[in-house]
Amino acid sequence: MSTINNDTFFAIARVQADYARCIDDDRLEEWPSFFLESCLYKITSAASHREGYEASVVFANSRGMLTDRITALREANIYERQAYRHILGMPSILGEEAQGVRTETPFMVARIMLDGTTDLFATGRYLDVWDIGSNTPKLAERLVVCDSSRFDTLLAIPL
Amino acid sequence: MAQSADYALSPMQPPHWQGDGVTRIPYWTFQRDDVYALEQTHIFQGPSWHYLCLEADLPEPGDFYTTAVGDAPVVVTRDADGEIYAFENRCAHRGALICLDAKGKGRKDFACVYHAWTYDLKGKLTGVAFQKGIKGKGGMPPEFKIAEHGPRQLKIARLHGLVFGSFSPDAPDFKNWLGPEIEPRIGRVLAGRKPVVLGRYTQELPNNWKLYVENVKDSYHASILHLFFTTFELNRLSQKGAIVVDETGGHHISYSAIDRKTSSAGGEYAQQNLRSDSKYRLQDPSLLQGFNEFGDDITLQILSVFPTFILQQIQNCIAIRQVVPRAPGRTDLNWTILGFETDTPEQRLTRLKQANLVGPAGFISMEDGCVGGFVQRGVKAAPGERAVLQMGGSTAESSESRVTEASIRGFWKAWRAQTGI
User: Fold this and answer.
1) CA nearest B205 in A: which residue?
2) N or C: which end of chain B has fewer CB within 10 A?
C-alpha cells in the first residue's frame, strides 16, 4: 500500500463518482472540466495497451479536443439515442510522481438503448494520473483500457 | 475437397434474381443462410484474393500471424527461407485449430494441442504422435501416408507490404486481378516506405458484410450522412474528385482533391477562411492540421479490392480495413491504423489525432458502422423487396461525378459473376 493519505484517496474517489454521474446523467458538456487544460485521454484495448500501440479508438491531448468531441456528438454526428450506466470499483492508488497521483480503477458500463435494450457495453480499467494541486483533483491523464479489443459498432458517448 | 464443396452446395436454392441488371438488389441477399454459405464457397474459398496481413506483421523467419478468410481461420507464417506461407488453421486429423495464438515469434513448427499432430511453417504435416503405436500395438495402418494429409494451403501474393492469399488454385494472377488502375493507387499510399502498425481493433458490425462494403463504395452518402466537416466548416478548399471502377466492377477508388482552379489567389479559399457565420468551431483545430504526405492535392482516397479489402487515406489517417463475415447478420471490421518509419514525432502525433476520424468513435465514420444495422433491421420483414441503385444510371463505370452509385453496382456485378446468383 502506498503512503498516500486517505484524504487524497477519498478526494479522488469522490471525483470519480462525480465523473461517472456526469456522463450517465447526460451532462456531457461538463465532462471536459474533469481534465486539466493540457491532458491526455485515450480509449484503447488491453491488447493494444500491452502491445504498446500508440493509436487508439479515441485520442485527445487537450481539453479543447474533449469539448470538440462533445460538440460533434451534439451537433454533427448522427446516432441512436442511448445512455450509459457506469459502475466503478474503488481506485487503487499506485503511487505518486511528478505529474501527480497514479491510480487504477475498474469499471463496467451498461448501455441502454431507446427501446430499453440493455447490454454490458464495456468492462475495463481507468489508468489515471491526478493533479491534486487544487481542492478538486483533476485528470492529467486518463487511459480507458477496455478489456476486449472488440468494440461495439458505435462508441459515441465517452467512457 | 471437391466432395465437401458439393455437399455444402447441394441443399441450396437461393431465390431467383429478377432481371440481369444491378439496379435492383433483393434484400434476401443480406439475410439468407444459403446465400451466406454460397458466398463462402464461391467467393471466400473461390478464385478471389483476400487480404491476410502486413509483411510488417511477419518481419522475421519463425513469425506467425492468425487471420481469417471469410469463415476460414488462417495462419500466415514466414519460414526459414524468408518466404511467406499461409494455411488453413485446421488440423488434418480431427479438425481442431492448430494455432491458438493471435501472433508470435520464433516458431519452428506448430503442434495441434488435441493429439500433437505436427506441422512445419509451410503448413505441411510432418509428424503424427504414436504413428507406429506403442510396443508394436495400435498406431496408424501402414497405408496411412503423412504426405497425403494436411490443411489446405493458400496461394500468396505480396504488394507494397500487403499480403493477400487465395484458397483457390484457379485464382487469377494477382496483378491481373487488380487491373491497371488499382495497383498504382495502392502504391501511392504504401510504395517505397515501411509501415508501422500504430493501432488495431475490431469493430462489431450488426449487419451483413455486403452492407458495409456497399457503404464503403457509396460516394453518394458522404456529404449527406457525415456532418462533421460541414458542421465545423472544415471543407475550406473547393474539392474536385472522381470515382474509378475497374473492369470487373469489384474494385474501386473514390478520391477528393483540392481544386486549384477555384481555390487559387484571393478566391474561395481566402474568403472561406474569413467566414465566421457558423456557430461551431473546433476548439482544438490541430486535429486537422496535417502535412502534405503525397506531394499531390488528394486529401481523401478510399480504395477497395473485391471482396473485402479497403485501404483508406483520409488526410494523414492511413488505415487498412479487413471485412470478415461472421454470420448473415454479423460482421467483424478489423482496423489497422498505419504510420511509417519515416514519420517525424509531429507527423506521428497528427496521425494519432486523425485516428479520431475513423472507427466506432470516428467523427466521420461512426455513422458508417450503424447504417448497415439500420438497413438490416429495416428490411427484416421484406426479403422479397429490393433496394434501388439507379443514382448515376445503370452501369458500373468510372465517373467524374460522385453523385452516383456506379461503384456499388460494380460490386454487385462482380458478386453476381462470382456467386452465379
Assistant:
1) A153
2) N
